[in-house]
Amino acid sequence: QVQLAESGGGLVQAGGSLRLSCVVSGRDFSPNRLGWFRQALGKEREFVASIWWSGDTPIYADAVKGRFTISRDNAKDTVTLQMNTLKPEDTAIYYCVLRIGTSYEYGYWGQGTQVTVSS
Question: Which residues make beta-bridge pairs with 3?
């Protein structure tokens, strides 16, 4: 069974930085692409960033481009989201997600970690 475990959320002032990490564990699966989604209170879940399991071709939502960086640590089976110049509108629960095999859908989700940016 595949499991995703996020860490690193918290409270930060606007303009500050946070680093989210997600550890992927499990056996007998073929990882495809990793990513992060977020959901703010009262809003729909939205895409933030994604990257191939190999660490290639990161993609970002326009709202975070130039401020957030997604990366992979192949040795530790982790994906990291470095968030800089945070804004109050970045406040949300952030979810680590995983696609496996040939699927185009993110079928595996972590439990989420809260990020709160104060103004």
Answer: 25
Dist CA 15 CA 86 (whole Å): 5
How many Å apart are CA 49 and CA 79, to the nearest integer?
A: 11
Average pLDDT over residues 94-102: 93
- Find tokens 């939502």 and name the residue: 61
Q: Which residues pair with 15 in a beta bridge?
A: none
Tens-place pLDDT, residues 15-44? 999 999 999 998 888 889 999 999 999 999
Q: How far apart are CA 96 and CA 68, in angstroms?
A: 14
The gap from C-alpha 116 to its chain's centroid, in whole angstroms, comes to: 15
List Cβ neighbours of 96 (8 Å cut-off, separation of 6 or more): 4, 5, 6, 20, 22, 34, 35, 36, 79, 109, 110
Whole-number Å distance between alpha carbons of 48 and 68: 9
Written as six digits, the tokens of 100 are 């496996």
Contact by Cβ (8 Å): 62, 75: no
| Residue of 46, 41, 54, 27 lying closest to 97 (CA atoms) | 46
